[in-house]
Design a protein that fits this description.
Elements (H helix, E strand, L loop, with lengths): L1 E6 L9 E2 L2 E2 H18 L3 E4 L9 H11 L3 E8 L6 E4 L6 H15 L4 E5 L11 H4 L5 E8 L3 H4 L5 H19 L4
Parallel strand pairs: 1-4, 1-5, 5-8, 6-7
Antiparallel strand pairs: 2-3, 6-8
Helix pairs in contact: 1-6, 3-6
Bound molecules: zinc ion (ZN).
Length: 181
Amino acid sequence: MKVFIGVGHGGSDPGAVANDVKEKELNLDIAKACRDVLKSYGVSVKMSRTKDENDAVSEEIKECNAYSPDLAVDIHNNAGGGDGAEVYYHYGGGTGKVLANNILAEIVKIGQNSRGAKIRKNSKGKDYYGFIRQTSCPAVIVECAFVDNAGDLKILSSKAKRKKMGQAIAKGILTTLGAEI
Ligand SMILES: [Zn+2]
């Protein structure tokens, strides 16, 4: 089994910035923990970046399709004043929807609330997000917490907590792959 992990933003693009936190740094900590769990279950993993460097979504998509994984996740954190985690999947449902719901079920277990599994379409009726629209395997975008909501951000306020988030995402992936966890 192969899984691609997109690590949102990086380098000159910090992603959401608020409360003395840069999204790109949270994303990387969470992604590394996710990778470590998947590898411990014998899953092959490719990350779009393993350090702080530029990492455009278009490059992530190319890398993902070249790797040809069974599943792909893009790890992000939110902004805009909401509260909780949400996961976007392909509007047609299928394995992406299953993956989204499995990940949210695990995130809820570590104490984060869920805003639900969601779809978002563009004006052409296709998936709004390139990572979902242009990848050739089932792919989801995980938004773990809101960087600009200090209360919500508590779920990621230490390395240990970010590790727990990454582990939760990994469990949702493993369940979708049919692994015993
Ligand atoms: Zn982001």
